[in-house]
Write a structure and sequence with these properties.
This protein has 104 residues and is mostly helical. 78% of the residues lie in helices and 0% in strands. It contains four helices and no strands. The chain starts with a helix and ends in an 11-residue tail after the last helix.
C-alpha cells in the first residue's frame, strides 16, 4: 500500500481520519465532561500534524497523477468531514494502479 503515491495518500487519510474521530469522540468529551483540556491539546496537535501530512501527500498525488482540480478539491473537502476520509478511500482503493483519476 505504501509503495504508490495513492497508497501513501490512502494510508495518511486513514490515520488522519482516525485522529479526527478520536479528537471529536474522545478528547472533546474529556475536555467538556471530565475537565481534562489536555486531551484536546494533545489530540488536536496530533490531528493537525497528520492533516498537514495528508495535504502534502494530496499535493504530491495531484501533481504526479495529474488529477483534475475538482477531484483533488473533493478529496480535500472529504478530509474536513468526519468519516470523509473513509468514504473517499473507497473511491481511491480501486484507482491505485490507474494513471489518471479524473472522472468522479
Amino acid at each position: 500500500m505504501l509503495t504508490t503515491t495513492v497508497g501513501r495518500l490512502r494510508a495518511a487519510g486513514m490515520v488522519e481520519g482516525v485522529s479526527f474521530l478520536l479528537l471529536l469522540g474522545l478528547a472533546m468529551p474529556l475536555k467538556y465532561f471530565a475537565g481534562m483540556p489536555l486531551a484536546v491539546k494533545i489530540a488536536g496537535w496530533t490531528h493537525g500534524l497528520l492533516f498537514i501530512v495528508f495535504c502534502m501527500f494530496l499535493l504530491v498525488a495531484h501533481g504526479e497523477r495529474q488529477w483534475s482540480m475538482r477531484w483533488t478539491a473533493m478529496i480535500f473537502v472529504a478530509a474536513l468531514l468526519p468519516f470523509g476520509p473513509f468514504v473517499i478511500d473507497r473511491r481511491l482503493r480501486g484507482k491505485v494502479d490507474s494513471r489518471r483519476l479524473d472522472a468522479f
